[in-house]
Design a protein that fits this description.
The chain is α/β, with parallel strands linked by helices and 278 residues long. It contains twelve helices and ten strands.
């Protein structure tokens, strides 16, 4: 399917205006694949025809569906594994020490996609009941896409999705096979709250988090937008909290308020903050 340059530019502009994400030339090959299902559902013959409908402005909801289709929602349980090993072995035990007085921990999974990252976090806590007995663990998961947030909240995955990153024992323990797919156990679903949120907006309630995961989200932002996102993340971070990014992301040269934690490699903290107990 041929896509005109003007149609590509219009779609790229829509995506950036709504989400801050850039549709670079290297990603434009995804247009046909990303929009094919929507075109079939609506009986639209081509992307150029879709653009004509959008430009006429008669169906505002259609533009929302187009933008959500263009978002990259690739994720899986315990993605890349090493970051979760770091959390389990070092970061979470240290946060438990720092928050021993309040026994309250707030975690934010920003750009959660279909929820696998948030449920992976919930499993880390649930599988260490002795350490977290009596604690209030608030896990917030957010995404700019309303459709993926709805899907994450439902907690139902295909056979392929539930097997990506999970061992057989975890899959059996935390998921139940249903006619609709593999659904997360009720206890797991109740341990995470989901909401639609744009990373470029003010931080969601409660506004200060002890741990923020924002992995593989900032890759698709331009420099100016990425700096704004880092400002938002910094504002949402507790004074001695940590930010975790994706493997290909860094704060170096991009965020004035954040720095690498030399004692907890792979995590970032606010500058000029000592790791004192809260």
């Amino acid at each position: 399917m041929q896509i005109s340059d003007s149609s590509s530019r219009i779609l790229a502009g829509m995506l950036e205006a709504r989400t801050g994400q850039q549709l670079t030339m290297s990603r434009r090959w995804r247009l046909e694949t990303a929009l094919s299902q929507l075109l079939r559902e609506r009986g639209i013959a081509s992307i150029d025809e879709l653009i004509t409908i959008l430009v006429m402005g008669r169906e505002p909801s259609l533009s929302t569906r187009v933008v959500e289709a263009l978002l990259n929602n690739e994720t899986y349980f315990f993605r890349d594994r090493v970051p979760f090993d770091l959390l389990k072995a070092s970061a979470l035990p240290e946060l438990a020490r720092r928050r021993e007085g309040s026994k309250t921990l707030r975690v934010w999974s920003a750009g959660c996609s279909a929820g696998q990252e948030a449920y992976s976090l919930a499993m880390l806590f649930a599988e260490d009941p002795v350490r977290w007995n009596g604690w209030t663990i608030d896990i917030l998961a957010s995404d700019v896409s309303e459709s993926v947030v709805e899907r994450a909240r439902a907690g139902t995955y295909t056979q392929f999705e539930v097997q990506r990153g999970l061992g057989i024992q975890q899959m059996i323990r935390w998921f139940e096979e249903t006619p609709a797919g593999w659904r997360a156990a009720e206890a797991l679903r109740k341990s995470v709250r989901f909401q639609v949120h744009n990373l470029l907006e003010p931080p969601p309630h409660p506004g200060r988090f002890d741990l923020i995961l924002c992995r593989n989200v900032l890759l698709y932002l331009n420099d100016a937008t990425r700096r704004k996102a880092f400002d938002r993340l910094s504002a949402a971070l507790s004074p001695d909290g940590w930010l975790m990014l994706g493997a290909g992301e860094t704060v170096i040269g991009q965020a004035t308020s954040l720095e690498t934690d030399r004692e907890m490699r792979g995590l970032y903290r606010l500058k000029d903050q000592s790791a004192k107990a809260a």
